[in-house]
Design brief:
This protein is mainly alpha-helical. It contains twelve helices and three strands; from the N terminus they run αααααααβββααααα. Helix 2 (23-40) packs across helix 4 (64-83). It is globular and about 60 Å long.
Length: 294
């Protein structure tokens, strides 16, 4: 089977319409499949070509999670091709997806979070930057959820934000007083300056008056982290990981944390309990006189 661009487009259209995949997912799958299609060229899909593609990714030192994501996209596409009768072979069997090692997520300590959020944000729009950082940590939002946030989803008086997560699932997350204060300050001082249209509903805007991109938030947080002198690179998901870990450290119910994060499966949330146990174990070994054999 030769992989045609038109078939890939049909598959992506089906993902969006039938399965309700987000634009972010469609973009990632489309990019992964186009890279694979370019690699194949006019060669048909077979076991040898799939092995060669895996070796090609390995030579370019792709991270294991990236390889897994790309192969998952390919396998899903090949299942679609078989179901549509484009091939009679069980072509998806040629795609072996490596098991993911369960690495514990990185987090910022409560002390470092406080230092980051209490710093003087030196930028063109410091109130906006602070409000974003406060909200990411206060609610454990994904960066895409933060960038897509509309004014109508914010209930400042009730201190609640309504979030539309993956596959259009809605959840409500409480917002702490520090984040509420930061959001109020941004709305009062800077959003009116940035906004160019009365029809713009996005909360966080760029210089052009349009919704802030995920890439812009990445760059902004990384920049403020470097100014602080943090040894760890700061990125949006770091706040989400820290949010979950810090709540579980304070013995908040796992199901509550799951609902606030928008995890479909509680086993995803349970990963943070392992992180908390590792931290407690490390603290014990450092503090107890007879924890380490001398």
């Amino acid at each position: 089977m030769i992989v045609a661009k038109e078939v890939v487009q049909e598959y992506l259209w089906g993902l969006q319409v039938e399965r309700g995949a987000s634009s972010h997912t469609i973009g990632a799958y489309g990019s992964d499949l186009e890279q694979w299609r370019q690699f194949l060229g006019k060669n048909p899909v077979n076991q040898a070509q799939m092995d060669a593609y895996v070796m090609w990714m390995d030579a370019r030192r792709y991270a294991p999670a990236t390889v897994r994501r790309k192969l998952s996209a390919i396998r899903s596409f090949l299942v679609f091709c078989r179901n549509e009768g484009l091939t009679t072979s069980s072509v998806e069997e040629w795609v072996a997806i490596p098991k993911m090692s369960q690495t514990l997520p990185k987090i910022l300590s409560i002390h470092d979070i406080a230092l980051f959020l209490d710093q003087r944000f030196e930028s063109a729009f410091p109130d906006r930057d602070r409000a974003i950082a406060e909200l990411l940590y206060a609610c454990g939002l994904r960066v895409s959820e933060c960038c897509a946030l509309l004014l109508s989803q914010l209930d400042i008086e009730a201190s609640v934000v309504t979030v539309w997560g993956k596959r259009g699932k809605q959840r409500q997350v409480p917002v702490g007083s520090c984040a509420i204060m930061a959001i109020r300050r941004y709305l009062d001082r800077e959003r009116g300056v940035l906004c160019r249209s009365s029809h713009e509903e996005k909360v966080f805007l760029n210089r052009a008056g349009r919704g802030l991109s995920r890439q812009s938030v990445f760059r902004m947080l990384r920049s403020h982290g470097k100014k602080m002198g943090l040894s760890m690179e700061v990125y949006p998901h770091l706040f989400r990981h820290s949010f979950a870990s810090h709540l579980l450290e304070k013995e908040v119910n796992l199901r509550e944390v799951q609902s606030w994060l928008g995890h479909a499966d509680i086993t995803t949330t349970q990963l943070y309990t392992h992180l908390t146990r590792e931290k407690v174990k490390t603290m014990y070994q450092r503090a107890h006189p007879r924890a380490v054999r001398r």
